[in-house]
Protein: Alkaline phosphatase
Amino acid sequence: MTITPGRSGGRSRELRAASRLVGRRRFLGLTTAAAALAFAMDLPATGTAAAAELDARRITDFPFTLGVASGDPLPGSVVLWTRLAPAPYQPDSGLPAERVDVDWEIAEDETFATVAARGTAVAHPEFHHSVHVEAEGLAPGRVYFYRFRVGDWLSETGRTRTAPAADSQVSAMTLAAVSCQAYHDGYFTAYRHLAEDDVDLVLHLGDYLYEYAVGPAGGARDYTDRSLPALFDHETETLEDYRLRYSLYKSDPDLRAAHAMHPFVVTFDDHETENNYAGSVSEDDVPAEQFLLRRAAAYRAYWENQPLRLAQLPVGPDMQLYRRLQWGPLAQFDVLDTRQYRSDQAYGGAKHAPGPESEDPTRTMTGAAQEQWLLDGWSTSRALWNVVPQQVCFARRRLDLTPEPAVSMDAWDGYPAARRRILDGVKAAGIENLMVLTGDLHRGYAFDIKDDFDDPFSRTLGTELVATSVSSGKDGEEKPSNWATYTAANPHLKFYDGRRGYTTVTLDGAGARADFKTLPYVTTPGAPLTTAASFVTEVGNHGFTPA
Structure:
């Protein structure tokens, strides 16, 4: 999603210098890429031998300033996360480049009277003293509590849950979908309400942070009681930049509260790296070898700051982020990555009517391997609901009422052949209850997914929910200026709202219910939450109707 920012000027010098060390063809070999990054961007090899050990008694300030988090729940396992940062707004986070032992425990109760598992993890300076624990041996389908300890310091207690067993009887689940949280556009009030909401899982659909500069007053937050350091007041390009930006975002108390209460499943979109990039193609058309160095830094910092498994650890500029999770027999979640492998946007990425360039059948949104993985997963799925968390609008979204209306070249409308292959895969696999979850647009939408978007009477193959932004776009409005145009141009569009917030979805054996929860403002804190609208779709009878 494009926001017009002020761009930084001269912070690409070191990336340009580093890119000259290796040509693009050589760079794309992972071994060469890792070596180049280690030399050029201070990304040393992983391992305990890479740093001396820090005596935890030397940590004199509270180190858990960025909170705790959990994610990617399996029936017997969940990821537990924290990062040691006594001084989060410093490049070194207030710690020397030495490894630290961090104790962890996960219990069946909030008092930790019945501990289910415990151990010690190493916070490596190579990973900015982040900790990713894959807690194993847990019971399926139950709530747990967890915490970390280093030296005499104890973290807050987090709450998480495991996924139900594959053969369990799961009557229902409730998830929350969130996206797009520009710090400089407003407060994360939606997360404070989400922390108090009763959901089983949070799906973050991209734009967890923005690369744009954040001034001393925090942009639209307009701080009067603090001044942010100048090191945030430029666009992120280097590993240090991205790491510091996560420190800023994750120091937000509302975001920390939501992470501490619910397990998250995350996937990135563009702004975690750079606006509207496509594969190895930068928005600014810098050489690919230079941009891939930046992408490697962004992906590294993303993994360090999210509750992700070791399988998602990037190697150079490549990261295996698409993955599949199950919620018993009720739901299968196929989490997509629509940035890393896509073809470059057609027509320069501008809004454009469909044409030969965008309709080229070789164009891909996901890359061939991920596309086949998705189709193969559907062919073997036994879940009642097949849910696809992903980044950009899947349904056709006409933007005007002209005879040849423009569409977004950054969304699936710019990749119609790829969308056609996905829809044909839905039919071939006999998927009866498809739901796509989307972010990016800073608006809430409910779409019916049509077999043929040119024919409003064609078969409905599933539904799509677009979660509005947490803060991006500032306060928003109930009916944007294009509301009448969009609703008239898109008969499969059932709901459109321009306010901030999040969406909850309850899945059960009879159907699904979506609740669009919105805030009247985000540029000042404390906004109340209301449910703007609710919609249902029935099992075996696709299409949204008002609840």
